[in-house]
Every structure is written in C-alpha cells, then in structure tokens.
Amino acid sequence: ELLIDSLGPKVIYISLDPPEPIKNDENSPVTVEVTIGLDEEVDPSSTPELQWVLSGQGRTAQSVQGLTKTTPTSGFAEVYEGTFTLPADGGLAEIETISFTWSAQDALQNQSNVITASQDFQVYQGELPVIPKNRISNVRQAEIAMRRAMQSAVF
Predict the structure, then answer these.
(1) What is the pLDDT along the chain (155 residues), one digit of tens a residue?
(2) Burial of residue 8, with CB atoms counted within 10 A of its CB: 0-12 exposed, 13-18 middle, 19 or more buried
(3) d(Cα 34, Cα 48) in Å, to the nearest integer?
(4) How far apart are CA 53 and CA 33, in angstroms?
(5) In this structure, what are the phi and psi dihedrals at residue 18, rounded to the nearest 5 degrees?
(6) Is the CA virtual torsion 110, 81, 65, 90 positive or negative?
(7) Do 117 and 13 contact (CB within 8 A), yes or no?
(8) Pick from 153, 46, 64: which is nearest to 106 by CA?
C-alpha cells in the first residue's frame, strides 16, 4: 500500500492562559499566552504563522508574537507557544470571541491553513457573562458557577 502525503500540518489543539472566559481590563489589557498542538511537524526551514482576531465589528487579525516551538507533549507532533495582548476595548461593549487563522507547511512543502481545534474563546469586561448552556460541558458549567460564587463571596 502506497500512502501519499498531500496535507500540511493542522492545528488540532488550542489552549489559552488565562483560560476563557477571559476578563479583560480597559486600564490594563490582558496578555494571553496561546499554546497550539499540531498533527505533524512544520518544515524547519519555514516559519509558521498564527494570527488572532476578536469578533467585534471593525477588528483586524493580528499576529501572535514570539511564536516558538516548544517540547511536544503526548498526542502532538509539535507544540508552539506565543503571546498577544488584547486591545483595551476588547470585550467592553459586548462579549467578543477570539478566533485564529493558521498557515504552515511541512517538509514536503504541503501548505495548510486548517484548524480543527475548538476556537470560540470568550472575552468580556465587567461582570462574568452568562454562557449559553449548550456551549459548554457540565463540568465547565460547574467550574464557572464556582468562579462566580467566589467572585461574589466576602471574606
């Protein structure tokens, strides 16, 4: 059986720190660390590109800064990390979501811009928003409920 590789590296995992929902601050915009996991290695002679954009009207895509290959973890051919800083008004007028675009090639020059990882990360300012129940798992709902309780608790 002969297999022909015609696909470039796909982003199969995205993680943000801080985790979402991300509470931004107009006076001190949040810097976000993004980690991506790939299904195959990027050509070492090329530079992959990862961009992010907020969903609000008039927003434009920005490059993730300092995108660097790190030690891969189980399940990923390669892992990259980088950072970006949210704009001061990110999530201020309304809840916004962060999405990503990707471009890379493998050693066989196969290009890819495919992201199969979930990438619907919420950004807000002010009070923690209510997230539609159909969007998150029961475990995540419990975590958010606990975070709300802790934010309103007086110690």
Answers:
(1) 765 666 889 999 999 999 989 999 999 999 999 999 999 999 999 999 999 999 999 999 999 999 999 998 889 999 999 999 999 999 999 999 999 999 999 888 889 999 999 988 999 999 876 656 555 555 555 555 655 555 555 54
(2) buried
(3) 14
(4) 14
(5) -70, 155
(6) positive
(7) yes
(8) 46
Residues 143 and 33: their CA atoms lie apart, in Å, by 21
Dist CA 110 CA 43 (whole Å): 9
Model-wide pTM > 0.85: no
Q: What are phi and psi of 151, to 5 degrees?
A: -65, -30
Q: What CA–CA distance (Å, rounded) separates 50 from 29? A: 20
Cα dist from 128 to 82, 116, 125, whole Å? 26, 28, 8
